[in-house]
Amino acid sequence: MKKDDIRRSIKARKTLLDDIEKEESAERVFSIVQEMAAFLMADRVLMYHSLPDELSTRSFIERWHTKKQFYLPRVNGLNLEILPYDRSRLHLGSFRIEEPDGDDTADINDIDLVIVPAVAFDRRGNRVGRGKGYYDRLLSSSRAVTIGVGYDFQLVDEIDAEEHDVAVDFVVTDRNGIVRGRIRKNSR
Fold it and tell me: Is 0.90 topped by the overall pTM?
C-alpha cells in the first residue's frame, strides 16, 4: 500500500475512536514502555507532545518528567530542535503542537531514547509519518534507542521504505505490545 493510502486509511480509523478508547490505549502502551529496559536505563528521553489524533503522551510525561530528563522537539524550518521539557515554557507552535521555548537546545547524540510518533509502522520498524520528514532527518544521525508508539491498527503488514526513511528499534501498540523493529549492528 502506498504511503498516502496508508495515511488516509489510518486517519479514517482514528475518527472511530472515542475518548475512553484513546485514554485506555495510551495507558496500555505507556505502561509497557515504562517497563522496557531501554526506558529504565535511559536518563535523557525525547518525547513528543501529542496531537489530538495521536496516542496521548500527556499523562506519561506528567508521571515521569521529575524522574527522567524529558525533551520535546520544536520545528525550526525543515528540522527539529530538541529542548528540555518544562511545563511552564510551552507555546503553541508549528502545526498547532505544544513546543518548548528557549535557546537551550540539546544535541540528538545526547539523547538516550526517542519515543517516536507516526501514522503507521510495520513489524520491521519502518514508519509512515505525516510526510514532512522531520523525524527521518533528526534520527538519521542518532544512536539513541527508538520506540515507535501507536494504536494496534497503526501496525500494518508492510511499508515500502525509501532510502531516506529511518526505522525504529521497537514498536509498541495497545494490543500487540512490543514488536521488534530494526536490528542495528552498532546499537548501544
Answer: yes
